[in-house]
Amino acid sequence: MALLLGLSAVLLWSTVATAFKLALRYLDVNSLVALSCLVSALVLCSYLLVQGRLGELKDALKARPWTLLFMGLLNPILYYSVLLRAYDLLPAQQAQTINYTWAITLSILAVPFLGQRFSARDALMAAVGYFGVVVIATEGQLSFGAIDSLTGLALALLSTLLWAVFWLGNTRLALPGDVALTAMFLAASPLALMWLVGSGVLVTLSWQALASATYIGLFEMGVTFLLWSQALKRATQVAKVANLIFLAPLLSLGLIQLFLGEQIHGATLVGFALIVPALLMQQRG
Asked: Which residues, other chains included, contact 162 with Cβ-Cβ below 8 Å and sequence gap of 6+?
């Protein structure tokens, strides 16, 4: 069952890069973040309602309102705003592969924030991983002039920093993961909607726009995290399930080519081949 849940989560996450690009054809970034947050909050609240655990959600919000509000601002609002803008500026194959380097960013931040050791091997693997980013961003030319968008690259890297900071903050909450995630999205949704109204953008809610926001709210922000959490909880060997996550970017590249028409550049595959071993070595370390 753990393997099935893990594979289900990976398959859903592999569709996200394509879904982001398609959604951005019908919605601007602020609208997509706001609507997707709302969908995810409703789904997560429904999940806790079915389980009879809304009391836990109420207690969490009452005990740590400002902390959860801050975390909600960090993720989903700020993280997805930055990530989606990166997707808007870069080819999907670049944005999604670079985004997977968040684990390298996390290993670096864990030194000052958690007091963890950063060995010479860790430094070497980080350097290899980030060299993979350079290969991808420059399409193998290793020249800044070959980068599609410096702003997009900076935003993609910033998204890894935001996610790593969020992950570190989340470990200190001492709350069940599903309760914490629901509280954050519940706190973030009205703020995202106010941000959208304040931006003055006129939202055209075509069926494509609604379908896109609903899909992302369900399968990027909500249900997939629940599936992944359950997979890890039920696993007898957590490492085997956890390593399934590395299938997602590879599957995603196939979907990007199939549905978006992007020709997968050889440099993307080379960069991917550098990033994944770096992540695996750091995970084992």
From this structure: 74, 75, 78, 79, 82
pTM here is 0.95
Mean pLDDT, rounded, of the chain: 92
Express each pLDDT in 34-51 by its tens digit.
999 999 999 999 999 999
Q: Can you read off the two tokens belonging to residue 76?
A: 């989903």
Percent of the chain with pLDDT over 90: 73
- CB burial string 216-240: b at 16+ within 10 A, e below: bbbbbbbbbbbbbbbbbeebeeeee
- Quote the tokens at residue 263: 């020709």
In angstroms, the CA 70 to CA 222 distance is 19
Nearest-angstrom CA–CA distance, 254 and 249: 9
Domain residue extents for the chain: 2-284
- Tens of pLDDT along 188-198? 999 998 888 88
Q: Is 132 helix (H, G, I), strand (E, B) or coil?
A: helix
Cβ burial 1-21 (10 Å sphere, 16+ → b, else e): ebeebbebbbbbbbbbbbbbb
Which distant-in-sequence residues (6+ apart) come within 8 Å of 7 by Cβ? 244
